[in-house]
From TrEMBL:
<protein>
    <recommendedName>
        <fullName>Threonylcarbamoyl-AMP synthase</fullName>
        <ecNumber>2.7.7.87</ecNumber>
    </recommendedName>
</protein>
<feature type="binding site">
    <location>
        <position position="238"/>
    </location>
    <ligand>
        <name>ATP</name>
    </ligand>
</feature>
<feature type="binding site">
    <location>
        <position position="152"/>
    </location>
    <ligand>
        <name>ATP</name>
    </ligand>
</feature>
<feature type="binding site">
    <location>
        <position position="69"/>
    </location>
    <ligand>
        <name>L-threonine</name>
    </ligand>
</feature>
<dbReference type="InterPro" id="IPR010923">
    <property type="entry name" value="T(6)A37_SUA5"/>
</dbReference>
<dbReference type="GO" id="GO:0006450">
    <property type="term" value="P:regulation of translational fidelity"/>
</dbReference>
<feature type="binding site">
    <location>
        <position position="122"/>
    </location>
    <ligand>
        <name>L-threonine</name>
    </ligand>
</feature>
<dbReference type="InterPro" id="IPR006070">
    <property type="entry name" value="Sua5-like_dom"/>
</dbReference>
<dbReference type="GO" id="GO:0005524">
    <property type="term" value="F:ATP binding"/>
</dbReference>
<comment type="function">
    <text>Required for the formation of a threonylcarbamoyl group on adenosine at position 37 (t(6)A37) in tRNAs that read codons beginning with adenine.</text>
</comment>
<dbReference type="InterPro" id="IPR050156">
    <property type="entry name" value="TC-AMP_synthase_SUA5"/>
</dbReference>
<feature type="binding site">
    <location>
        <position position="196"/>
    </location>
    <ligand>
        <name>ATP</name>
    </ligand>
</feature>
<feature type="binding site">
    <location>
        <position position="64"/>
    </location>
    <ligand>
        <name>ATP</name>
    </ligand>
</feature>
<dbReference type="GO" id="GO:0005737">
    <property type="term" value="C:cytoplasm"/>
</dbReference>
<dbReference type="GO" id="GO:0008033">
    <property type="term" value="P:tRNA processing"/>
</dbReference>
<keyword id="KW-0548">Nucleotidyltransferase</keyword>
<feature type="binding site">
    <location>
        <position position="142"/>
    </location>
    <ligand>
        <name>L-threonine</name>
    </ligand>
</feature>
Length: 346
C-alpha cells in the first residue's frame, strides 16, 4: 500500500494537510498521528471495518481493547453511561495524558473493546490529534502506532519504520513530548484503580482521587502471579529486539554490578545511564545517557527511542540502571520491568 506522508506543524497544524488526513478517516482508512504521549494509529471508532484494519496493521491480539480518543467532554459523554463531567479527574486532567475507563454505551462497536462492556477514553492535548478528531467529527480509536511487541513510537522515524506501506496515511509531527503511554485509571470499579502508570504522577493522582487503588501488578515486578485487570497487561510489551537486563539498586551499587556484567559479556554491550551516573563506569564502556535524574521527564522521553535504536546500532545486550519510583519514575520503571528479559536486584 502506498502511504501518504504529511509533515504537519505540531503547534499550528496546517488546515489543508489535516483535511487530507480527515478524508482518510472518513473513508475508513488508518491514519497514524502524534499525541503528547506517543504516536497513535487511528481509525473512526464507529466503523468496525476500519477498526479491524488496526488489529491487522499492528498484528495486535483482538482481545486487547483500544483507547478511544475524543476532542471534547461532550464527545466523551456520547460514548459512555456515566456522567463524565461529574468526575473531577476528567475536568481537571483533560485534555491530557490520562485514559479513563467507563461503561460503554451501544455506540461503541464491540471490536473496539475486544467485547468488553467498558471503554477507555482519552481527550488528548496535542494540537494535531485534536484537529484530526474534531474535524473528522467522530471519536478516533487509536492504540500506539507500533507493530505489536515493539516499543511505542515516539519519533517520526519509528512510526515510518513500523507503518510505512501498511497504512493509508502517516501524519509526521516531530518527537512526542512525554514519550510514554497515557496513565490509565479504571473508574468502573468500587474504587478507582490505576491500571497503567503514565505521565501523570501517582502523587498528583492521589491528590485528585484519594481513594485510588494502585494494584501490585502495576509495578510489573517479576514473579507477579495475580490477575491482569486489564487485557493488555497479560502481553509482554515494549520488547527490545535484544536482551535487556535491568539492575535495581542504588546508583553506586548497581553501577558496580553493571561493570561486572559488561566485563563478563561476550556480546556488544551498552549501558543505559544518566548524566549523574555515567562517570561511575570505565571510559571505554559504551554508555547512553537517557537524561538526568533531576528531570525524569527527559529520561521518559528518550527511553523507547533507546530500546528501539540501540539494537539497530549493533548492540546485542542492553543493561539499564533503575530509577526512583516517584513522579514519572513509576511509569519508567513499569515499562523497563516489562521490557526486561532479566531483573537483578543488588
Ligand atoms: P495502547 O493503546 O497500545 O497503549 O494500549 C491500550 C491499553 O489500554 C492496553 O493495555 C489495554 O489493555 C488497555 N485498555 C483499553 N481499554 C480498556 C478497558 N476497557 N479496560 C481495561 N483496559 C483497557
Ligand atoms: Mg501499545
Amino acid at each position: 500500500m502506498k502511504t501518504t506522508k504529511l509533515q504537519v506543524s505540531p503547534e499550528t497544524p496546517e488546515n489543508e494537510k489535516i483535511s487530507t488526513a480527515v478524508e482518510f478517516i472518513k473513508k475508513g482508512e488508518l491514519v497514524a498521528f502524534p499525541t503528547e504521549t506517543v504516536y497513535g494509529l487511528g481509525a473512526n471508532a464507529f466503523d468496525p471495518q476500519a477498526i479491524r484494519k488496526i488489529y491487522l496493521a499492528k498484528g495486535r491480539p483482538s482481545d486487547n481493547p483500544l483507547i478511544v480518543h475524543v476532542s471534547s467532554l461532550d464527545m466523551a459523554q456520547e460514548l459512555v453511561i456515566e456522567s463524565v463531567s461529574s468526575y473531577e479527574i476528567a475536568n481537571r486532567l483533560w485534555p491530557g495524558p490520562v485514559t479513563l475507563i467507563f461503561r460503554k454505551n451501544k455506540r461503541i462497536p464491540d471490536v473496539v473493546t475486544g467485547g468488553m462492556e467498558t471503554v477507555g477514553i482519552r481527550f488528548p492535548a496535542h494540537p494535531i490529534a485534536l484537529a484530526l478528531i474534531s474535524r473528522s467529527g467522530v471519536p478516533i480509536a487509536a492504540p500506539s502506532a507500533n507493530l505489536s511487541g515493539k516499543p511505542s513510537p515516539t519519533e517520526e522515524k519509528h512510526v515510518l519504520e513500523d507503518m510505512d506501506g501498511r497504512i493509508a496515511c502517516i501524519v509526521l509531527g516531530g518527537k512526542t513530548l512525554f514519550g510514554l503511554e497515557s496513565t490509565i485509571i479504571d473508574m468502573t470499579r468500587n474504587r478507582p484503580t490505576l491500571l497503567r502508570p503514565g505521565p501523570v504522577s501517582p502523587e498528583r493522582l492521589k491528590d485528585l482521587l484519594p481513594e485510588l487503588v494502585v494494584p501490585e501488578f502495576v509495578m510489573a515486578k517479576q514473579g507477579y502471579k495475580g490477575p491482569a485487570l486489564s487485557p493488555g497487561m497479560k502481553y509482554r510489551h515494549y520488547s527490545p529486539d535484544v536482551e535487556l537486563i535491568l539492575v535495581e539498586g542504588t546508583p553506586e551499587e548497581s553501577s558496580k554490578k553493571i561493570e561486572e556484567l559488561v566485563k563478563q559479556s561476550e556480546r556488544k554491550t551498552v549501558v543505559l545511564c544518566t548524566e549523574e551516573t555515567k562517570e561511575l563506569y570505565p571510559k571505554n564502556f559504551d554508555r547512553i545517557v537517557l537524561g538526568s535524574r533531576e528531570n525524569l521527564y527527559i529520561v521518559a522521553a528518550n527511553l523507547f527511542g533507546a530500546l528501539r535504536e540501540l539494537p539497530a546500532q549493533g548492540f546485542q545486550l542492553l543493561i539499564s540502571e533503575a530509577f526512583p519510583e516517584s513522579g514519572i519514575g513509576l511509569a519508567i520503571m513499569n515499562r523497563l520491568r516489562k521490557a526486561a528479559w532479566k531483573i537483578l536486584r543488588v
